[in-house]
Design brief:
163 residues; alpha/beta
Amino acid sequence: GLPGVHDGRIEIDGTVLEPGASLAASLAWMGSDPLLVEDTLRANLALAAPDASDGRILDVARVAGLDAVLGRPGALDLILDHRGSGLSGGERRRIGLVRALLRAAPLLVLDEPTAHLDAASAAALRDVLAGVIRSRRASVLIATHDAELAALADAVVTLEPRS
């Protein structure tokens, strides 16, 4: 086993995950630097849920705070490059959030969602995430250095380096 890790188990909705089993089917993930592909905004938003309807994509994108992007003419058909040129850092992060929410998995993992954003963008994304956290019927696990984001949690686990 891992040093310092002892007995324990992972349980999802009352089902114990067996050792060596994968969480992939139960997990939706939002990273701090979402992969963008050279394709339409629609394709980028629905990357984790390619069968999602335009209506569902638009509903979730609004929840994620992408209103400014959606207000552009032909928004879903907007062509993006792999860098997301023309999008702010916060908008690129929100694309990752839309993907995770479209996946509708029982565990949502957010990896440093507000890292490297300016103060206003981080505050706006925290507000969106607070709404998502309050409305979800699933568990949300956040890895963050953002104390204001951590304050939204029911429980906080602080990891400290070993001396």
